[in-house]
Amino acid sequence: MQKLFIAFFVFLVTKRIWLAVIAYIVASLFENGRTQNRGTQGGQGGFAQDPFEFYRQSSSKYDIPTMLMALSAAVMKADGKVLKAELDYVKRFFSQQFGNQFNSTHLKVLKQFLDSNRIPLNEICNDIRNRMPTEVRVQLLHYLFGIAKADGNVAESELNSIENIANLLGVSQQDFISLKNMFYRDVNSDYKILGVTANASNEEIKKAYRKMAIAHHPDKVASMGEEYQKGAKEKFLKIQEAYENIKKSRGFK
After folding, report:
1. Which of 24, 74, 125, 225 is the most exposed place for a label (fewest CB within 10 A)?
2. Whole-angstrom Cα distance, residue 54 to residue 52?
3. So where are the chain's domains?
4. How is 47-109 classified by DSSP, letter by letter?
5. What is the average per-residue pLDDT within 23-48?
6. DSSP state of 221
7. Global confidence as pTM
8. Rounded to an integer, what distance in angstroms lies between the CA atom of residue 231 and that of residue 65?
9. pLDDT bracket for residue 41 (50, 70, 90)
């Protein structure tokens, strides 16, 4: 109500609608800032005690770093222990992805989610699903697998956590299996990365490779930050590597 009053007052004084609109926007930004401060200053550790309420009430509900911190915490907690290697991986990703915008406040949000038994995954994943295209959501899973692999091993519980997130994000089972086999390998991983079985013909393998190369080309996330692009390039190289391994084992060009 206050921002409407300010906008109306500016219009009465200036008789210019565009100035009134600007006044309304500026007032909204200040109001959002105050709301966010209230949401993050109360409770234990400087934040609301319940991360679910913090997420629901925050004026920056669609704040990407907050979403990623919540998903990161879910994976980090999955095996019952939070390791320094995982925390370092998250810090490095956020520092390179968000630059100077990444600060101690984000780490406090991460700690809040790590300390909680109640992360609102359904709501967060639904927000991401409605906002991000498929290729970005797939790349987000690549990041989460990176957290799980940071200590050199992907635990079964971490794998289950990421699969649950993948389902909530609306990522296809084929894309999930392809990503999984880049980090959690078995004798048929090269085939699974391409989305085919070991019984597939050479032509089917070539077709699958071309499809994967187009769908997951790094250009698909060119508008995202440096770390997203880095992850996309790593994934693309894994697809190429899998294809080359199969070609070599089968002896076709």
Report:
1. 225
2. 5
3. 2-41, 51-250
4. S-S-HHHHHHH-TTTT-HHHHHHHHHHHHHHTTS---HHHHHHHHHHHHHHHGGG--HHHHHH
5. 47
6. G
7. 0.67
8. 17
9. very low
